[in-house]
What does this fold into?
Amino acid sequence: MIIEFRDCIRLFGISVIVCLAVFVCTIFLNYNLDITAAEEQIAPEGRVIYEALVMTGKAVAAVSGGCLAATSLVMLLGYIRSFIDARAKELGVLKALGYSAPAISRRFLVFGAAVLAGAVPGLFFAYCYMPAFYARQNETGLLPDIRIRFHPELSAALTLLPAALFALLSMLYALSLLKKPPLQLLGKTGESRPAPRRRTGTDRPFLKELKRSTLRDQKLFAFLIGFSAFCFSSMTQMSMSMKDLSSESFSGMILTIGLLLAFLTLFLSLTGVVKANSKPIAMLKVFGYSRAECSRAILGCYRPVALAGFALGSVYQYVLLRLTVTCIFADYEGIPEFQFSLRALSISLAAFIPVYELIMHGYAGQISRMSPKSIMLE
Amino acid sequence: MIEIKNIVKSYGTRKNKFQILKNISAEISGGDFVVILGASGSGKSTFLNVISGLERPDSGTVHYGSTDITALSDAELTAFRRETVGFIFQQYYLLPNMTVEKNVRMGADLSGNRDYLSIIDAVGLHDRRKKYPSELSGGEQQRVAVARALAKRPKVLFLDEPTGALDEETGRQVLDYICRLQKEYGFTIVMVTHNANIAEMANTVFKMNSGRIENIYRNETQKNAYEIGW
Ligand SMILES: Nc1ncnc2c1ncn2[C@@H]1O[C@H](COP(=O)(O)OP(=O)(O)OP(=O)(O)O)[C@@H](O)[C@H]1O
Ligand SMILES: [Mg+2]
It folds into this structure.
């Protein structure tokens, strides 16, 4: 068996994210279903609140659900890719022995279990938290009491559907990767690289070139690190604005999601970066490149990416909140336009930079502990 | 001049210790061509790693001039490797996502060597400069590794079975480049091999057997890479 149970355990990060996504989406969508069912009973003075709640419910479910689902998808595909890369020889032998690509890739269906393992607890926690959530949504007392109803179709759509979808995607992606001839998997015929693009400034020092090629050849990691900064920036700032606009529970939830997502992605991708580059790092050390030079070349290239992600996140949350506020209060006069909060931005940035640098410092330490001899043990 | 005194090195846990190097002493003079010859498992690679500063011995000293590298801190040892030694391994360990030119530059930048293109030419890879390692044959890749190691202008070049993965033809070619470049630059060579024929190219041979140097002898005349058997 090529895929073992512990390979699924490594997908723990994905399970956690899926759990969060299902939790948030279940709460908000369940509430939306229940409140729209009770629409006739709503008194005229409760209309504004009703519309605002339905709107934010949809927005939060779409944004966080979509964000989280996209992250877990990227992570899963990235994981499958590195999984196949790491076992290319083994898989090549299987293919050479006559196993067909579909037969091998069918085993990747198992990865759907990681999604289910996150979705089911997410659903469970959602229904546990729901009474408190329903009560808090109606703090003003302007809405009728809304009973919690269980919606089986919603539950199925949020657990079984994504699990099946992810399983299918895993298999298809694995199939597309395994389509290569066995010899190529065995590494006998190297994948030919595109001819180097003509560049004017090709006379770059080695470490600068290394920085660039690390970034260029491992786009997935760059994307994830940028995304992690994006999440941190948008969710922390949104949470601060939410506190003023709506309730504390909203803002707390957004903050938790944002931080969890940001750190989980950052840790997973940095671990991946260090692992993927362990050979070049060992070789740099053999040659006498210092600890600082190694980590600057391998980790330093992500700093601009992280800052770009952060900037994008700030803009994104502003646009999103502004649109939401404009939509909800479109019919009411005297509501001031949503202003960009410099205060939230500065607080978020002031928290982000030291935390990011500290984590990078930790990973630089991991790099410096790698022995130069490790390259010879394979 | 490298002075090796009473090197002991073991692997394993306290209970299950296995001594790989058993009190080895030797001297290597500057500009020499030393071959460490021995059967598989005799400790050649371990010995090479210890005297080149890749690994620390349990006890004993390795002096380069007046510096004892076994007493250096990790950072100092890194600086030592940067200034003094070059490495070539059986596997080439080139950086796969960089061209030949950039791989050689990895060595050149360490010593501020701006003339690295001439070394690529010297190993006969002029028209392969823009290629990636995966587009080269094994012999060509090993020549890139030679160029990379020499581009940093090492005082001592350490080689661990540099022809182990090559066929006779390309193996001879790589050895020939190394010898010719030694004559030009005058660095010291310490090469590990289990092939007694290759030892005929050396000036000095250390014969190793289960963790000890059994015999040290000098060759009257050094053969070149095309005169030895294979
Ligand atoms: N990191 C390690 N941990 C435990 N034992 C090791 C380690 N490295 C080497 N050894 C053992 O030390 C002994 C000598 O190894 P070494 O690599 O020095 O031999 P060698 O002479 O270079 O052999 P070969 O010609 O096969 O490369 C071997 O028995 C090996 O199993
Ligand atoms: Mg060896």
